[in-house]
Every structure is written in structure tokens, then in C-alpha cells.
Amino acid sequence: MAWLTGYPRDQVNWHPAINEEKCVKCGMCMNCGRKVYEWIEEKPKVVRPNECVVGCTTCANLCQGSAITFPRLKELRKLYQEHKIWDAVKKDLMEKGTIPSGSGCCGGV
Predict the structure, then answer these.
(1) Dihedral, CA atoms, 31, 77, 71, 14, nearest 10 degrees?
(2) Which of 14, 97, 78, 94 has its CA nearest to residue 50?
(3) Which candidate, 20, 90, 29, places its Cα nearest to that of 58?
(4) pLDDT tens digits, residue range 56-100?
(5) Rounded to an integer, what distance in angstroms lies between the CA atom of residue 51 and that of residue 36?
(6) How far apart are the C-alpha atoms of 59 and 8, rounded to whole Å?
(7) Interatomic CA distance for residues 30 and 34, integer angstroms
(8) In terms of DSSP bridges, do strands 17-18 and 43-46 run parallel, antiparallel, or are they unpaired?
(9) pLDDT in tens, 23-42
(10) 104: CB partners within 8 A, 6+ apart
(11) First to last CA, the chain
């Protein structure tokens, strides 16, 4: 996954959680393009948490009941910094020609 470039997805704590008391069963989460959710026993369930795109919160943003939450972004950013994930992603993007070499940020990759 380009957002992680070489870092194992299963070691990243990033996936939705549903507060069943707030869930109004609107079904918006079922639009997830990564198929993170399934409708089980008349409500949505997170069944493939590691398929969630790291950093994406679209389902939470559109949930009518505000029932979906994610881990704290601060912790995700800390992981990216500690494991130099930003540097690896930037290097990969430059090698692919997606961004020009020598672009600023990320510790001078």
C-alpha cells in the first residue's frame, strides 16, 4: 500500500470502530470501497479492519449517527515519524515520477 511503502499494514492501528448505541443503521459505511464492513444481524460490522486505508475517515465523516470513530491521528503520525514511513513514501513517489526529485519535507529524502 503506497501509504505505508514497506511497513506492514497489520502493525498499524488504523481502523474504524462502531458505537452500536449511536448507530442509526443508515448504511453509509457500507459504501466503503475497501469492503471493511459487512451487514450482519441487521447492523454494520467491521469485518476486515486491515483493509481500511490508513488515514481515511470518510465513513466516520458521513455516518449519520456519528457512530464511527478511529484511533487518534496523533498516534498514527507518531508511528510515521518513528519508523520513517514518510521518508519511504516520498522516496517511492519520486522514484515513480509522481512527484519531482528534491521536493521539500520529510527529512530530505
Answers:
(1) 50
(2) 14
(3) 29
(4) 999 999 999 999 999 999 999 999 999 999 999 999 999 999 999
(5) 6
(6) 23
(7) 10
(8) unpaired
(9) 999 999 999 999 999 999 99
(10) none
(11) 19
Q: What is the CATH number of domain 9-95?
A: 3.30.70.20
- Per-residue three-class SS string for the chain: CCCCCCCCHHHCCCCCEECCCCCCCCCHHHHCCCCCEEEECCEEEECCHHHCCCCCCHHHHHCCCCCEECCCHHHHHHHHHHCCHHHHHHHHHHHCCCCCCCCCCCCCC
Neighbours of 66 (CB within 10 A): 12
